[in-house]
Amino acid sequence: MSRYGEVYAAWKADPEAFWSEAAASIDWETPWERVFDPDEGVYGRWFAGASCNTAWNCLDRHVAAGHGDRTALIYDSPLTGTKARFSFAELTAKVEAMAAALVDAEVGKGDRVIVYMPMIPEAVMAMLAVVRIGAIHSVVFGGFASRELATRIDDAKPKAILTASCGIEPNRIIAYKPLLDEAIGIAAHKPDRVLLFQRPQVAAALVEGRDVDLGAAMAANAGRSIPCVPVAATDPAYILYTSGTTGQPKGVVRDTGGHMVALAWSMGAIYDIHPGEVFWAASDVGWVVGHSYIVYGPLLVGAATVVYEGKPVGTPDAGAFWRMIEDYRIAALFTAPTAFRAIKKEDPNGEFIRRYDRSSLRTLFLAGERADPDTVQWAERHLNVPVVDHWWQTETGWAIAANPVGLGMLPVKHGSPTVPMPGYAVEVLDDAGHPVPPGKLGNIVVRLPLPPSCLPTLW
Q: Residue 357 has what DSSP assignment?
């Protein structure tokens, strides 16, 4: 029996009490004065007056609670034949070493740092190192064109850029440094420092006086303690630029406190993931799914996350995902329907699926685009686990509508993301703002106030 109805009703009856209770899962440096301040900002602000730190909540508190030896991050790169695991204690130490390199580059609270990296553990470390010192990251998808990168440099005005020498695709290596140097050349704003992680596949040339070898800097700072800097719950944790389908890319701002509260709530209630389990969002840190569910969501609740540098097919075959599930005992997989369409095309009868032990997998989550019923039913048939389509966007940072597995699943209706999550009063209105009857097309609207984690503003 699903608890969804009672949970949604509890939110509706008293949203502030609901989110105040959810916020108990987060460590706060100072408590909030108001759960929600309707007069602050455009849409009101959550947890006004509170202070906190995201890196503390993702890393240090688990170590302090005696869970430092639990796996935090799994790296698997079929493209390079590399695998690695980091415990919470090891990941914390790496993040501190990278944070030390940023502090030495005079990056501090409120400064922006662009992260331009491939799917390597250092990309996750970079994001956590930035928020550790109270700075604001803006991740740009690795390999993005110079002009696009330059636009984001001029908008965010970063003090420093964290990057790597290259990204790796199935048939080619993409050198990042020429793209980055060109972008800095185009941009009116010039960052003070570029901290570059040299990968063995490409050695990038460093610009004297501006560029720092990040690997060497981290090695030199190993063991150095960099405390977490508390920031206001309403301060930005990051800026993430939407693709700019209409004109200039828009920098969605994510606040610090509400972001953590919503993600931690979603990990249990929606994804049914608990401390010590392995959650795999097969996405990229450059997209919102990567921010929320590769980096922050799993680590906030003490689960392990996966950084996969590979593809659904061709690295080496359509069994890639199932090998990962067997090797790492993954409890839930979150990916885009496109990935499953690619697997289905290569392996229509699911022969690769049967070659691997998938007994750890409880649920498949799909999002990012429409999940066509054919693909959903193919996955249900071959995986024999619930397939949950859910809907959200960069602006929200977590699900608007989903089938909340952790609250008890509701009946699946193919083609539907099921029901709105607490925090979202979703309606369908015509162009004049009147409700439309069932079966009629209209505009989807969400009533204010928006829940925690939703954008408070654009940068």
A: -
